[in-house]
Specification:
The structure is a single chain. The protein has a 5-stranded mixed β-sheet with strand order 4-1-3-2-5, covered by helices on one side. By secondary structure, the chain is of the alpha+beta class. The chain has a single domain, classed as Alpha-Beta Plaits. The chain contains 2 helices and 5 strands; from the N terminus they run βαββαββ. Helix content is 26%, strand content 42%.
Length: 92
């Protein structure tokens, strides 16, 4: 089932290759969208794909690695756009 979500990740997630971690996992799950740092110190993930795969990505993000300290993950369902052709890391 097609699904789209906005994920906001709070914690130690900037300057620790977190965006690359998200991209690699999104690519492995065949998801599309982007990940970017926010000026607030949070990371935003906009993702589209199969609902089950997005749920897997959310679980992966929440578990993280020893390099990240995830304090909170907020997920908001979004309307499917179909605009994304791949998963990208965006710069400010």
């Amino acid at each position: 089932m097609k699904y789209a979500a906005k994920i906001i990740v709070k914690g130690t997630v900037q300057g620790v290759f977190f965006r690359q971690f998200v991209k690699e996992n999104a690519d492995n799950l065949k998801l599309r969208g982007h990940v970017r740092n926010l000026e607030t110190g949070e990371v935003e993930v906009i993702v589209e794909g199969e609902k089950e795969q997005i749920e897997r990505l959310i679980r992966i993000i929440k578990s993280g690695t020893e390099h990240f300290q995830i304090r909170d993950v907020k997920v908001q369902e979004r309307k499917w756009s179909g605009d994304f052709k791949e998963f990208k890391i965006l710069r400010f």
